[in-house]
Amino acid sequence: MIAGVTGLELAAMLAVNVSTATAGDILIASAFRQIGDFDVIMARSGILSAIFTVLRNYRFLSGFAAMAVSFFALLFTLSHADVSLVAPAAGSLTFVTNAVAARIFLKERVDRRRWVAAIFVCCGVALLKH
Predict the structure, then answer these.
(1) Concatenated DSSP letters for 32-94?
(2) Which of these, 72, 73, 65, lies nearest to 27 by C-alpha position?
(3) Number of neighbours of residue 39 by Cβ within 10 angstroms
(4) Alpha-carbon distance 26 to 23, whole Å?
(5) Whether the predicted pLDDT of 65 surpasses 60
(6) First-to-last CA distance in the chain?
(7) Model's pTM, two decimal places?
């Protein structure tokens, strides 16, 4: 870890990164479920109409903004902590939070195999810190 960053500060930085990445993923997935099949819209109205349909969707725009915040939070975290800890922790914890959020907000069926994988991911992240 780079000098000056405590474990609590690192956890907070990772929490911002993971939560905004998850929010972005869920909002963008929800937007495309609301919009419908992009190929159908494009075939019916053309590419420009399909693009404007997406860009007018508030869920897509909110998800895009959340993903941008997540990206800059990751850059900030990487400037304060070791990449060998931050990159795997951020990526794997986002996998876990996406599974939970997809189940809660998108009503997706998350099978037992994915829950077991999420538990193993959490164990792996815990091992990174020690």
Answers:
(1) HHHH--HHHHHHHH-HHHHHHHHHT-HHHHHHHHHHHHHHHHHHHHHHHS-HHHHHHHHHHHH
(2) 65
(3) 9
(4) 5
(5) yes
(6) 12
(7) 0.87
